[in-house]
């Protein structure tokens, strides 16, 4: 693969084809040139971009469960 420049990948946020540089690598941080979203390369061939900050669903659901169990205690 020679003379491969200005590789582009689809932004998951806005769908724009943003540049990832000459030698994209997994874990590389990319700023979308269209929406400014902070992205990370999670896959090559084809290049897949993902959001850098993913909400932690596990922590959220655990807090939610604690709330539920607390509510159950107050029931007679
Ligand atoms: Zn974007």
Give a brief outline of the structure.
The protein has one helix spanning 57-73, and strands at 7-10, 17-21, 29-31, 38-43, 48-51.
List the bound ligands.
zinc ion
Low-confidence stretches: none
Looking at CATH, which topology would you report? Rubrerythrin, domain 2
> Can you name the CATH architecture?
Single Sheet
Question: Which structural category do the helix and sheet elements fall into?
Answer: alpha+beta
Mean pLDDT: 83
Shape: rod-shaped
Q: Order of helices and strands, N to C?
A: EEEEEH
Strand fraction band?
25-35%
CATH class: Mainly Beta
Domain module tally: 1
Q: Considering DSSP H and I runs of 4 or more, what fraction of the residues is helical?
A: 10-25%
Please give the alpha-carbon distance between the first and last residues.
70 Å
Beta-strand segment tally: 5
**Radius of gyration over C-alpha positions, nearest whole angstrom:** 20 Å
Provide the spatial order of strands within the biggest beta sheet. Answer: 3-4-5
Largest sheet: 3 strands, antiparallel
Task: Note the total helix count.
Answer: 1
């Amino acid at each position: 693969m020679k003379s491969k420049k200005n590789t582009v990948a689809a932004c998951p946020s806005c769908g724009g084809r943003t540049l990832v540089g000459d030698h994209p690598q997994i874990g590389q941080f990319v700023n979308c040139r269209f929406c400014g979203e902070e992205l990370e390369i999670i896959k090559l061939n084809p290049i897949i971009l993902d959001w850098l900050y993913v909400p932690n669903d596990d922590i959220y659901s655990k807090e939610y469960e604690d709330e539920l169990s607390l509510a159950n205690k107050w029931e007679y």
